[in-house]
Amino acid sequence: MPAPGLADDKYRRGVLAVRTGSAVFPGAAVLSVSAAWRTGIGMVRYVPAVDDRASEHGLPSPAAAVLAAHPETVFGAPADPANCDAWVIGSGTDPDQRSEAERDALAAILGGAAPVVVDAGALDLVTGERPAAPAILTPHAGEFTRLWQAAGLGTKPEGWPARTRSKRARPVKTEARVAAALQLAERLGAAVLLKGSTSVTATPGGQAFLSGPATPWLATAGTGDVLAGVLGALAASQGDAIREDPELLGAIAASAAVVHDVAARLASGTITETTGGGSASASSGIPITAADVIAAVPEAVARLRATRPTASRSRHQRSGG
């Protein structure tokens, strides 16, 4: 995230549109919007779903929850789509509960020109027709397997357990995760950020990045929504460059994973002053929530801007070399 210059205004710093959360998970909207603001974006627009509403359990609607948490947020889609530098969609939503009107609205976003972070409940929208927009998908292991199947690549990637949530399942080797992410990215025509202790980012052009291992304290509800917001903010800050070269989404997504981890380490007390990293062991530090990670994002951005650490990167040929 570039530091603002004297000539910058809120628009030059990037405008991110966010369409996340649902009646069941209104907090996802707050987490993604909050994370984007704390990463240093110039403006966040929250665009409610077609059927945005309060829950029957007395929960506020996603839009009401966002307004209460961040009154500085602008509401509604821009009249001119060109006035939006990137989108985040899907966090905290369920495709089985999505209306046709909402599906059409999300499809229009994926058919646009601005980069799109596709999370959780919107992932199914990229398995039919390749998105016209530069897109980065952010699945966890279970979602990745479902994408793999929907893309017609088989039951599961080679070397993966039959049940990714089983506590008895052996960890998938990094090499297998990289190979699978590259294959899925090529098939779908979109970058893929496969979340995990070590996150793997792959691009359709054959680039792969590794970020981590992250602190295990990150394994808590809501942190995926936080990552989507951080990634959306970084993408919006580089929106024009991504439109010219969508492969840049790989490096940007890997950078977001690093920001996410450093913020979690700061919040949990497992970071070291000298490296900006720290042990990945859960034997030190304190429990944290997604909100704790968000609160530490500004300091994480400042530290990373000062030290400029890099995610490891490799170039893979399409032949599998």
TrEMBL record:
Swiss-Prot/TrEMBL cofactor(s): Mg(2+)
PROSITE patterns: YJEF_C_2, YJEF_C_3
SUPFAM superfamilies in UniProt: Ribokinase-like
Catalytic activity: (6S)-NADHX + ADP = AMP + phosphate + NADH + H(+); (6S)-NADPHX + ADP = AMP + phosphate + NADPH + H(+)
Catalytic activity, EC: 4.2.1.136
Pfam families assigned to the protein according to its UniProt record, in alphabetical order: Carb_kinase
UniProt binding sites for AMP: K195, G196, S197, T198, S199, G224
One annotated GO biological process: metabolite repair
Location of the YjeF C-terminal domain: 1-304
Molecular function terms, GO-annotated: ADP-dependent NAD(P)H-hydrate dehydratase activity; ATP binding; NAD(P)HX epimerase activity
CDD domains linked: YXKO-related
Family: Belongs to the NnrD/CARKD family.
HAMAP family: NADHX_dehydratase (MF_01965)
Quaternary context: Homotetramer.
Protein name: ADP-dependent (S)-NAD(P)H-hydrate dehydratase
Organism: Leucobacter tardus
